[in-house]
Amino acid sequence: MKILSFGSLNIDKVYTVSHFIRPGETMAAVTLEEFCGGKGLNQSIALAKAGAEVWHAGCVGEQDGGMLIEALRAAHVDVSLVQRLPCPTGHAMIQVNEEGQNCILLYGGANQCITRAQINQTLDCFDPGDFLILQNEINELDYLITSASRRGLKIVLNPSPMTEALRKLPLELVDYFVLNEIEAKDICGTELPEEEYPNQLQKMYPQAKIVLTLGEKGSIYQDGALRLAQQAVRVEAVDTTAAGDTFTGYLIAGIAAGATAKQALRTATCAAAIAVGRKGAAPSIPIKQEVAAFEQETFQ
Fold first, then answer.
1. Does the bond joining 161 to the residue before it have cis omega, within 30 degrees of 0?
2. Residue range 45-71: mean pLDDT, rounded
3. Whole-angstrom Cα distance, residue 167 to residue 48?
4. Dihedral of CA 91/97/99/104: which sign?
5. Which of 201, 207, 170, 202 is nearest to 186 (CA)?
6. Which residues lie below 8 Å from residue 36, measured CB to CB, with a gap of 6+?
7. Of 78, 136, 224, 239, which alpha carbon lies 20 to 30 A from 39's?
8. pLDDT given at position 100
9. d(CA 107, CA 93)
10. Residue ranges of the domains in the chain?
11. Helix (H) or strand (E) segment spanning residue 128
């Protein structure tokens, strides 16, 4: 079983700040660091570090995208489906405050240059039952979801960043939603107690499995009558930038490998806990052996 991560590739410029900048304010950053990122790249690397066989599809700029391709290759992600285009690579400006929380400004760049021809050529390489992992940082998602569903791929959607256009996608074709409470609220169109979002989402999309992440409160997995709650592992947060992507990658890698939902949820939680204790996006993602040791120590 193959896993295709069709998603964004960004250069992350991370500014450490005392507090998030306010309207009209000029403030000096404490430090500036540059990392490989993008939700697509992060999830691909998390999948690969979790032991999955993963292909990444997407676009980078000819002049500045080489570091991203090398980062994927170093993590043993197949990069044969990544295209290099004569435009800037996508990038993000990330503020990280003293509590380790972040806020992010994205520029799409090459991530917004996906073509239907590229989608068709990419999907030709995969078979019914293979997994497709998507986020909301590339264009042509409507066509991509429809085409993948027609070919019988299992579609996993992390609806981030949430936009009005995303709600208009053919979400009834999605097999797994992996989302936080803010994204769940936006898709449901109403504010509910956090624990009620999986129920509401399943009413709206009964074919889908729902994975709701709640930060320090843990996560909830729901598939029909099956509902699982997983407590978070408490650690000192340094940078939460790739925590959600690490969770998603490890969760889907586990499910694709045949793990139970309960086991995959616990392993993904441990992987995310390790990631928040480190700086950067992709560099913070732990390897499989590290997560296994941490999980055994935490839940023994």
1. yes
2. 97
3. 29
4. negative
5. 201
6. 10, 11, 12, 67, 68, 71, 281, 282, 283
7. 224
8. 84
9. 8
10. 3-299
11. none
- Give the residue with greater pLDDT, 263 vs 238: 263
Whole-number Å distance between alpha carbons of 76 and 237: 28
Q: What is the pLDDT of residue 283?
A: 84
How would residue 281 be classed by pLDDT, with cut points 50, 70 and 90? confident
63-72 — which CB contacts under 8 Å span 24+ positions?
A: 63/88, 64/11, 64/88, 64/89, 65/9, 65/89, 65/110, 67/11, 67/36, 68/9, 68/10, 68/11, 68/36, 68/38, 68/41, 71/36, 71/41, 71/45, 71/282, 72/41, 72/44, 72/45
Block residue for tokens 């999309």: 205
CA distance 187 to 237: 28
Cα angle 127, 54, 140; round to 5: 70
Could you tell me what percent of the chain has a pLDDT over 90? 86
CATH number for region 3-299: 3.40.1190.20
Provide the percentage of residues in the chain whose pLDDT is more than 70: 100
Evaluate if residue 239 carries a pLDDT over 90: no
Q: What angle do CA 16, 180, 182 make, to 5 degrees?
A: 85
At 35 the pLDDT is: 86
Is the pLDDT score of 53 beyond 90?
yes
Is the pLDDT at 300 greater than 80? The verdict is no
